[in-house]
Fold this protein.
Amino acid sequence: MQDILPLLQDPAAWIALVTLIVMEVVLGIDNLIFISILTNKLPEHQRHRARRIGIGLALVMRLALLGTVAWIVQLTTPLFELFGHGFSWKDLILIAGGLFLVWKATKEIHHTVDPEDKPEDMISSAANTTMSAAIGQILLLDLVFSVDSIITAVGMTEHLPIMVIAVLVAVTVMLLAANPLANFIEKNPTIVMLALGFLLMIGMTLIADGMGFHVPKGYIYAAMAFSGLVEGLNMLARRRKKAGAAKTPH
């Protein structure tokens, strides 16, 4: 309590808290898109529970990582050098997570574009999409996004209470937004392709970061926002076209 009181009276601490909350919420968008797409493949009665478990695991993992801040900082220490770049545990985790995202997004795009291709494989794939399999994949990406999130938090502030509050707020926002986002994606098939494209881009960004080529997050989210705006205009145009066709007398 004595450590927290000075922070409550420090304007710089409040600014750091607000900035970190915004950053954590924005970083959580990537995780939330993946969770939404993955859980939409489950039977309807399991989706809400899977989302809550996935986001709950993200909270537990981030709080656990915050409890080992000293160890987290060491993840950025180079282990070996290759092609002039020192690879750390953080880099290896980002590369592995990026490769998984690229593989998963590419596989889902293929199934979306050509659902008639090898229908027997599609049936077996759908049958194998169980709660445990979905949670396992969510847990894997939770680890990647959690490490990235916590290292970002450590770089922005040295106060552990501020990091904990920011993580709690960000995960609460994810929990509240999970169902509306998943339902919106399910009801708008074109949004599914757009979201998969986002995951593909995010995967490539993680790989690039792991290889030492830092891509400013602002560029990524600006591209996502622009693509979302264009798709929103397309949806509005389609809706008005349908409304006009319905009013036209036959």
Summary: The chain has two domains: 4-214, 216-250. Confidence is low (pLDDT under 50) at residues 119-128.
